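User: Show me an example of a complex going from sequences to structure tokens.

Assistant: Sure. Here are the input components:
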Amino acid sequence: MTSRPAANPTVDRRRFLSRAFQATGLLLLAGCDNLSRSDWFQALLGKTEQVTKEAQRVLSPRQAMAKEFTLDDLSPVFPANGTSDPESEEYQALAKNGFAGWKLEIGGLVQTPSRLSLDELRALPSRTQITRHDCVEGWSAIAKWKGGKLSELLERVRPLPSARYIVFHCADPDEDGRPYYESIDFEDAHHPQTILAYEINDLALPIQHGAPVRLRVERQLGYKQAKYIMRIELVESFESIAGGKGGYWEDQGYEWYAGI
Amino acid sequence: MRTYRHTLPVRLGHWLNVLCLLILIMSGLQIFNAHPALYRGDRSDRDRPLLSMRAVMTESGERRGITTVLGHPFDTTGLLGYSSETRRGFPSWATLPGPQWLAMGRRWHLFFAWVFVVNGLLFGLHAFFSRHFWRDLFPKWNDWRNIGRDVRNHLAFRHPTGEEATRYNVMQKMAYTGVVFGLGPLIVLTGLSMSPAFDAAFPWLPDLFGGRQSARAVHFLACFSFVGFMAVHLFMVATTGLVNNLRSMLTGWYRIERDGGTRDEQACR
């Protein structure tokens, strides 16, 4: 004999209530996913970015330094995220020659546009720092970086007063051919720990970590640390560049201000 | 007899917390899923996680979800590591948004983190100046004296009636005080410890928790402590007069039964 517990009105009501709860939950979840896909709601939630940036910059002195670690703290393996070997022919040709033919182009809103070879970049005043790399995914890794100070480089090219952002154009396009780029403002560009790194753990920067040069802008998340830098452009606004949000990941919904 | 139990600021704060916590927990799990592993210290050495959720292929070509806690693997297929035929830490019904979408998870999380913090600060100010902390929430000497009796009554599901039901008992006071002054600040501070910009301004903060990755692990534990608190809270709300409790948190008014009688007995009188 099969007994049907549903005959009991209390159980019936409980079952109804639990199903009603489940249905409401599912509806709410679907509603949230719809909200997530709507532009106005993304923009509303995105307002936080400005608030966070202002709050963090009020709390943190302009020159507050990211913690520097010791050699004992180095990660045994520093993971290479994103592109680990750019496919473009131009890049592959440069790599074959050990980047002897690579020239860093600095232009845009500057008085003296320049082209620097790797040796010229190495001749710039440099900084060596052992810092923690924090990926937006949540993991951290520690490495020792050496690179030319971006502030020194900017002094040489003499930015025009209208320049507000420094844009880094990179050699690694994604599967759809969109190139990687990133941008920072002058506050970060003039920070003493902001360097164009050409060494990791005392070795020339290998291809997987962004050879010949990558950006280190400590105090921000990993996706700001652009690899494979080919060209630096000073601009007043990045709205006309690619997706207009100031970076490859920014164009896909990540925050331009990546301090958190 | 009725008593005005919860003031308007407390009720507003409570329901805002409900919204914030639900969204923060679910969007937090979405963010966690981007790298479903926890570590001790400042860096993530992939071979030494405290906890990890992975999908593995068995010899028969079947995918299983494996959760490893302190080196001990557990098969958690369908819930953790592998669910709905996808490699993911937590299943899609537990995350916000449902599908893997880190950028949007961060937007939800960081927006409602602000709401949660501002709401918490306003509640703190209100509770301090209205003496709500002192009058209702901090355990007093009398409470401690009766702790044995209160614990026994709780375990036997005997809940106070009459005059006594107008006050929180010592376990409620400890739970609420613990959440307001312990768990709440802890989850905010461990969250801030994961911000590289915040760490540059306050390097002692991540160090306090043993490094950024330790802070991330504590953030995760604090999250599940909130889940635990909410589970116990909901259980107590449901077993001590669901309608009365809900009404008091919605309208402020709480009905008190006369001493010594349950509702059924009163109905018979």
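The lines above are the inputs; the final block is the predicted structure for all two components together. Helices of chain A lie at 9-37, 39-59, 89-96, 118-123, 150-157, 186-189.
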